[in-house]
């Protein structure tokens, strides 16, 4: 079956998305050749709680490279958002680029599993919703002198319980799970499929075949082309 058929037959859809969804918006993925993680130092350290605490300038220099404020949602984000607006879908994303939200996905239909780069807070005074533009200009909070950070999940940090629970509940209620733009190699995100109903259909949309649970279906191709044909 094609993607349209799977979507038409489903009552409750969950999209599980990763970096590949945003490459069409001009944001490079992380682990491919030439991706953000291709430098000499391990990203597992540069994006760790330890690095932020012990070498905040090194952390800051690296995380600045992750911002693409001019990027716009593409047709994948838009079609998923439209399905969410109609109450037919929820989105659980590994992405921290804010594009699902910008596409119009309702807050109650979106789980940003690893957080959001554009949500900035001060580690010293706790003030939140600070300007990401100010953060890109300086990591120091002019209000109290504390060190700012984006509200993303770093290595050595766990997923907040409430966020994990929201994702699990969405998975448990779905009759269709669509994996798009992720190779499902990052945990605990990749474990979310284990919470699905036995009757739920799993479909992966990717350029290459993935290792998926038994019974899952795969659509090999360009996700942007596939979603451009979707009628919502």
UniProtKB/TrEMBL annotation:
PROSITE patterns: SIRTUIN. This is protein acetyllysine N-acetyltransferase. It is an enzyme of class 2 (transferase). Its EC number is 2.3.1.286. InterPro entries: DHS-like_NAD/FAD-binding_dom, NAD-dep_sirtuin_deacylases, Sirtuin, Sirtuin_cat_small_dom_sf, Ssirtuin_cat_dom. Residues 1-232 form the Deacetylase sirtuin-type domain. Pfam families: SIR2. PANTHER family: NAD-DEPENDENT PROTEIN DEACYLASE, NAD-DEPENDENT PROTEIN DEACYLASE SIRTUIN-5, MITOCHONDRIAL-RELATED. The keyword Transferase applies. GO terms for molecular function: histone deacetylase activity, NAD-dependent; NAD+ binding. Keywords: NAD, Transferase. Coiled coil: none annotated. The keyword NAD applies.
């Amino acid at each position: 079956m094609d993607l349209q058929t799977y979507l038409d037959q489903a009552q409750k859809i969950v999209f599980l998305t990763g970096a590949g969804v945003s490459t069409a918006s001009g944001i490079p993925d992380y682990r491919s050749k030439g991706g953000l993680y291709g430098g000499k130092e391990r990203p597992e350290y540069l994006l760790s709680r330890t690095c932020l605490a012990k070498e905040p300038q090194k952390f800051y220099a690296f995380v600045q490279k992750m911002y693409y404020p001019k990027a716009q949602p593409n047709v994948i984000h838009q079609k998923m958002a439209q399905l969410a607006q109609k109450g037919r879908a929820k989105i659980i994303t590994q992405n921290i680029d804010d594009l699902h939200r910008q596409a119009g996905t309702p807050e109650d239909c979106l789980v940003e599993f690893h957080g959001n780069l554009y949500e900035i807070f001060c580690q010293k005074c706790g003030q939140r919703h600070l300007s990401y533009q100010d953060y890109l200009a300086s990591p120091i909070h002019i209000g109290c002198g504390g060190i700012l950070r984006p509200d993303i999940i770093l290595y050595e940090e766990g997923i907040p319980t409430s966020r994990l629970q929201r994702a699990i509940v969405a998975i448990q209620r779905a009759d269709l799970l669509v994996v798009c733009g992720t190779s499902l190699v990052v945990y605990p995100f990749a474990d979310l499929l284990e919470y699905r109903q036995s009757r739920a259909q799993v479909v992966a949309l990717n350029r290459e075949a993935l290792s998926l649970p038994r019974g899952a279906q795969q659509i090999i191709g360009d996700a942007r082309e596939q979603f451009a044909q979707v009628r919502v």
